[in-house]
Amino acid sequence: MTEGGNFVQFKYPAYQVETQAPGLQHDSLAEAFRLRGVDYRGARATIEITQDNIRDFCNYMGSENPLFLDEAYAAQTR
């Protein structure tokens, strides 16, 4: 790999890159405007959060915060 100026040049490129933002064409902006308001996140799901889920998450994150792990302590807080 050789560096020259602001560009990095690889010895054997896998494909030809024309710009620093591959995949953007002149009609990309028009396509983006066409997609305004489209819900792209797909299907949504409702998941019930249980005490077990919270405990497992806290264990995973290494959190020992009693606000999340002690129901009596949490009931005394806002």
The tally of strands reads 2
Indicate the mean pLDDT.
Answer: 77
Rg calc: 25 Å
- Count up the helices: 4
Order of helices and strands: EEHHHH
User: What can be said about the biggest beta sheet?
Assistant: 2 strands, antiparallel
Low-confidence stretches: none
How much strand? 5-15%
Indicate the structural class.
mainly alpha
Instruction: Report helical residue fraction.
Output: 25-40%
Shape: elongated
Give the termini separation.
57 Å
- Order of strands, main sheet, comes to 1-2
What tags apply to this protein structure?
78 residues; mainly alpha; single chain; 35% helix
Descriptive report:
The protein is mainly alpha-helical and 78 residues long. It contains 4 helices and 2 strands. It has a domain of 33 residues. Helix content is 35%, strand content 8%. A hairpin with a 2-residue loop joins β1 and β2. The radius of gyration is 25 Å and the shape is elongated.
Layout: helices, strands, pairs:
Blueprint: E1 2-4, E2 7-9, H1 28-34, H2 51-61, H3 66-69, H4 71-75
Give a brief description.
The protein has 78 residues and is mainly alpha-helical.
